[in-house]
């Protein structure tokens, strides 16, 4: 599937090919902190298809407990997280695209969850949380 993405302010844009059947939810504590959320949704760009079309992301290098390094790219203007990849330049490297930055994100349904031992216990009950179709912060 062809996708294109952008940061919130529109400065950084990209395009890639993905397999929509390989969207994951990651519940690891790094993803919780880095996304400032309960989890992060990621899909890998097919090797050699990721193209940065505009803007220059800022790169943050994270070293995991395993010693593995990841280059996390985000917009220096608005802070939107765009992708993560191994450090360095390699035409065969993979890019873990942040689903929230993909324009076609509503079409991407997760097929797998990782690091569920770190998942918040209330996620299984999220359907029971009162909903609002707009930004109403008033309790029901």
Please describe what this structure looks like.
The protein has one helix at residues 29-35; strands at 2-6, 13-17, 24-26, 40-44, 51-54, 58-63, 69-74, 81-85, 96-98, 112-114. The longest helix has 7 residues, at 29-35. The relative contact order is 0.25. The strands form two sheets. The protein has a seven-stranded mixed beta sheet with strand order 6-7-8-9-4-3-10. Strands 1-2-5 form a three-stranded antiparallel beta sheet, with no helix packed on it. A hairpin with a 5-residue loop joins strand 6 (58-63) and strand 7 (69-74). It has one helix and ten strands, in the order E-E-E-H-E-E-E-E-E-E-E. The protein is mostly beta strands. The protein has a single domain (2-120), classed as Metal Binding Protein, Guanine Nucleotide Exchange Factor, Chain A (Beta Complex).
- CATH fold type: Metal Binding Protein, Guanine Nucleotide Exchange Factor, Chain A
Strand proportion: 25-35%
| Content-based structural category | mainly beta
- Overall pLDDT metric: 91
Q: Determine the N-to-C terminus distance.
A: 40 Å
Number of domains: 1
CATH class: Mainly Beta
What value does the Rg take, in angstroms? 16 Å
- CATH architecture assignment: Beta Complex
Give a short account of the largest sheet: 7 strands, mixed
Element order, helices and strands?
EEEHEEEEEEE
Shape field: globular
Strand order of the main beta sheet, please? 6-7-8-9-4-3-10
